Amino acid sequence: MDNRLFFPATERNRDSIRELLSRILVSRGLILEIGSGSGEHGVVFQKCFPHIIWQSSDPVLIHRNSISSWIDHEELNFKMPQPLDIDVEKTPWKIPSKLLLSIQGIISINMIHIASWNCTKSLFKESSKLLKNGQFLMLYGPFKFGNKHISQSNKLFDISLKMQNKFWGIRDLVEVSEEATNNGFIEEELIRMPANNFSVIYRKVSL
Length: 207
Ligand SMILES: C[S@@+](CC[C@H](N)C(=O)[O-])C[C@H]1O[C@@H](n2cnc3c(N)ncnc32)[C@H](O)[C@@H]1O
Prior knowledge:
The protein is α/β, with parallel strands linked by helices. It has helices at 8-24, 40-48, 61-73, 97-100, 117-130, 152-164, 173-182; strands at 30-34, 53-55, 103-109, 136-141, 143-144, 171-172, 185-193, 197-204.
């Protein structure tokens, strides 16, 4: 059965994210993606970076079914693992130990503003347990700076998120990075991305 979902934003941001990944990925190992959604990013990145393993995950069954369908459709079954059922808040995350051995980084695209603040906290806490010093956690999405939006469209988007769920909303990078620091990460690089988004690379520096 074809359960593929199509998330329009992935088409708009995949090229810029792919460019960044080509700079930060090391030659081997596994990337754990949190909140993979449709799976469209995962299959594109798996194809572009055949030397790594792209491990997607999502807590929503229709998303995991979509990811599996995308893996089938792109004939990546021989290479790309099936998605894991990971809800960042339900800890510890259930990850097969053989995958943990080869993890090189964790990526979450457009997730933390569509989830409670507790999910951000949990993301850093669990990532800190899984990653070794020198490995990275990358976030992609819109951010506020000093509690200010960088554009009118981000401000309106934030209002619409909060109307859907009072616990959602665009996060302030200062607060996100504080959480990172509390869990042994440093904010290594902030990269401006198209459409008023940013990528942030956090590097694990201590336990
Ligand atoms: C806007 S979508 C982004 C999906 C995908 N990363 C993309 O960029 O197309 C947000 C995703 O976060 C996932 N998500 C929401 N709450 C989550 C949680 N507590 N733990 C993990 N993922 C979560 C949703 O299921 C959804 O797939």
